[in-house]
């Protein structure tokens, strides 16, 4: 391999990493703006989130295309191969994160037409900020190749589950107390579930970063929230 070829190969790998980081920044902004649109009942912002989703889809396709081309032409091995494969996996998680943010924004548009439910939207906002922080931390870990930081995100997977289950109970209480809130609470419940799934994608990203850097997969089960035996379990926590 000539010096020119080596440099071109290195440039391609660095470009792939940079595009994943750029896609991560866009996905992070989508989640933050979707949650903000709920909290502020901001119709224009919610519409912007829905419209911007196409940019994430386009980046996802470009990253996959470049990664496949790099594998076919350069035949990377060891850490270079892990970096290339990781870019494809991360792009998929980020694209799905964007889809979930778009779903939240679509429901924010519907909620904006109904009566405000401030206590519940504040709960969504708190959960959204937690998820956004985890997503930002794991993307920073990717940008700086800090495996310990990625592991820290992985170890806090149960925090999002705990928020989701608390919000589920809160929404259920509202619906039982006033059946007129059932429609709005259902939309909020789906928003909470979307946020919980975004948290799962952040955990997936942490696992991919760990594998890319170390060449080793995580062992053991992800941290999971354990319900209080004295409290009734929601359908999300009961086992079949």
Question: How does this model look, in words?
Answer:
This protein has 240 residues and is mainly alpha-helical. Helices cover 81% and strands 0% of the residues. It has 7 helices and no strands. α1 runs antiparallel to α2 and α4 runs antiparallel to α5. The protein is elongated. The N and C termini lie far apart (57 Å). The C terminus is likely disordered.
Quick overview of this protein structure:
The chain is an all-alpha fold and 240 residues long.
List the SSEs and their pairings.
Blueprint: H1 3-40, H2 43-74, H3 78-111, H4 118-144, H5 147-155, H6 157-177, H7 182-214
List keywords for this structure.
240 residues, mainly alpha, elongated, disordered C terminus
How would you state the average pLDDT, rounded?
89
Shape: elongated
**Cα-atom radius of gyration:** 20 Å
Largest sheet: none
For the termini, the CA-CA separation is 57 Å
Which H/E pattern describes the elements? Answer: HHHHHHH
Q: In what range is the share of β-strand residues?
A: under 5%
| Low-pLDDT windows of residues | 225-240
Secondary structure tally: strands: 0
């Amino acid at each position: 391999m000539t010096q020119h070829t080596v440099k071109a190969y290195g440039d391609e790998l660095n470009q792939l990493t940079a595009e994943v980081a750029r896609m991560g920044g866009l996905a992070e902004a989508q989640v933050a703006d979707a949650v903000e649109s709920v909290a502020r009942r901001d119709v224009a912002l919610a519409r912007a989130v829905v419209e911007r989703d196409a940019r994430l889809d386009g980046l996802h396709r470009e990253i996959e295309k470049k990664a496949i081309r790099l594998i076919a032409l350069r035949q990377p091995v060891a850490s270079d191969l892990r970096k290339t494969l990781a870019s494809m996996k991360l792009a998929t998680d980020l694209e799905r994160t964007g889809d979930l943010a778009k779903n939240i924004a679509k429901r924010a548009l519907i909620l904006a037409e109904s009566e405000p439910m401030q206590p519940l939207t504040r709960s969504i906002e708190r959960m959204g900020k937690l998820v956004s922080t985890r997503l930002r931390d794991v993307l920073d870990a990717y940008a700086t190749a800090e495996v310990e930081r990625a592991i820290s995100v992985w170890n806090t997977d149960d925090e999002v589950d705990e928020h989701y289950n608390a919000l589920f109970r809160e929404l259920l209480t509202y619906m039982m107390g006033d059946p007129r809130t059932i429609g709005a609470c259902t939309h909020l419940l789906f928003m909470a579930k979307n946020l919980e799934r975004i948290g799962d994608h952040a955990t997936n990203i942490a696992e991919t970063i760990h594998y890319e850097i170390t060449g080793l997969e995580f062992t053991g089960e992800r941290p999971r929230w354990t319900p209080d035996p004295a409290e009734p379990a929601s359908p999300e926590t009961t086992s079949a």
